[in-house]
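User: I'm writing a tutorial on reading structure tokens. Could you give me a worked example: one chain, its sequence, then its tokens, then a sentence or two explaining what the tokens reveal?
Assistant: Sure. Here is the example chain.
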Amino acid sequence: MTAATIAIIGTGDMGSAVGAALARSGFRVVTDSSGRSPLSRKLAAEAGFEDLGSLEAVVGEADLLLSILPPARALTFADRVAGVLEATRAKLVFADCNAVAPATAAAIAGLFAPLATPFADAGIVGPAPRRGSAAPTRFYVAGEARAVLLELEAPELEFIDMGEAVGRASALKMCYAAMNKGFDALLTAVLMAAEQLGIRDELMAEFRTSQAAHAERMVTRIPYLAATSERFTGEMREIAATFAAAGVSPDFHRGAEWVYATLAQTPLAAESRADLPARRSLDEAIAAFTAPLKQR
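And here are its predicted structure tokens:
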């Protein structure tokens, strides 16, 4: 099956950028913006999406649907799509591209099995694709329907075959995010504790001397984490479940979940990646992140 019309739900920073990359490569890209935020609708329009106005219309016209949502919404959305497919008898390939545990991916696949709807498990690694970016955004894909994604061609996207077993792509995404976003959570927790203990300036001076790369990561990444903290809270929960199922302690990522949930309580969480300030000091960010602790 060749995908000429590709639906993407939703159209945040990653979804809109993926859709723009596909549109530049000649694919028709559609979405349903009903119920989405003004920013998501704006990003979709700028990326060249056609807004069909309803999920029913999207399901009726798409050959391939990419679900790119916060992890906490992945299963509920897939259930909605399955209901529309059952009611309309439409045919498409459903690809779950969310940061979810292999068990969650399997549960989502189970919604489509009775409908004989082809399913692909996908894990996205890397920043949102941009025109002319040096390295493509990677889609690791698994499942019987993965060939539909592997045949897509766009310079800013790379599709990597993970085999037939659903859950393998999600497992790779979980382990990668466990290191990458989990490490950001660890660095943030260290600085929050140091702030509470009154030794952050001295600790940062030591880091700049003996851990220069980590100190640079703190300065460049931590001030902007709140903008995605709500999404990352759910992602850490999925990672913890993945590790527990693998017989590895989930406790570290339960702690990372606490970090991101705390950041989500701050005023900085109202920002999005699209409107982040060009500069924010680490001092400003840590002050905001520890404010909820001081209130307790």
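What the tokens reveal: The mean pLDDT is 96. The CA atoms of residues 182 and 256 lie 6 Å apart.
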